[in-house]
Amino acid sequence: MAEKRKVYWDACIWFALIKQEPGRFAKCQHIIDQARKGEVEIWTSALTLAEVFRKQCGGTEASGLPADKDREFEDFLSQDFVYEVQLDRPIGVAARRLLRAHAQLKKPQDAVHLASAVMNNLSEFHTFDAVNLLCLNGFVTTRGGHPLLICEPPDPPADLFSALTPIEEATSVVPPLIAGALQDSVAPLLPVVGNGALSGVSISEVLNARAQTTAPSEEPIEEQAVAENTKPIDSLQNEQGMVRSVDVVQQVTPETNPGR
Fold first, then answer.
1. Deepest of 61, 134, 228, 246, by most Cβ within 10 A of its Cβ?
2. Which residues pair with 150 in a beta bridge?
């Protein structure tokens, strides 16, 4: 089993999650979703419980967490995937040393968050604070000796089906072994728009087009034998005085809670 990612959240992240801040909430919710699946552990300092009362993040004074959101915030921190780090003597000493070592780190509460991640050997530190914390990425080393990645939570992956062209969406519900052959068979028969993508194609149209290409001809065998598309080149030349060519258009789709 793959080892869980261990990420630290400072108060900015919790604030953005609970208040559903535009441009930030989706990133935070994606990490919460991963944590609920057992893929991620979220660590944070017990200091966060008080800090969100009035949070200044990245130089911008925030209004603070509304009183009616207190219970929701506390419930989040009580979930099994959240690990609460206690502010003890080793954390306090480490925070003071970080303040002395990094001039960009100006606030003791930010140093406490950073020290909590450093002392617990976490791999990632998530924040939206570009003024005091994001600028330290690459300059802070954990107690175990590895560099601490300081970054914003990553963007959630794009919705798979929203990026599909109509032909990809149609064939995505078909078993993979026949999807490729099906697309090759029906692509020349379906409407093509200016940018080369198939437009207005439903799965029923795909299957109907496929059926038309495989349906047996109703012409008698004798008539099929002399059908124009099976005539030798000589006979075509005799009747029309020239060799006829057929243009074929193919559609290519781009492809352990320390505080508990």
1. 134
2. 125
Taking each helix axis from N to C terminus, what angle separates 203-214 and 176-186, rounded to the nearest 10 degrees? 70
Looking at residue 75, its pLDDT comes to: 87
Q: Which of 40-44, 50-54, 111-115, 179-183 bottoms out in mean pLDDT, i.e. has the lowest?
A: 179-183
Q: Which amino acid is located at 46 in the chain?
A: A
pLDDT of residue 136: 96
pLDDT at res. 58: 53
d(CA 68, CA 52): 13
Q: What is the identity of the amino acid at 108?
A: P
* Amino acid at the residue 90: P
CA distances to 105, 106, 130, 185, 231 from 190, rounded to whole Å, are 61, 63, 51, 10, 27
Question: Within a 10 A sphere around the Cβ of 22, how many other Cβ atoms?
Answer: 8
**249-260 exposure pattern, b = at least 16 Cβ within 10 A, e = fewer:** eebeeeeeeeee
157 close to 182: Cβ distance less than 8 angstroms: no
Structure-block tokens of residue 29: 């919710």
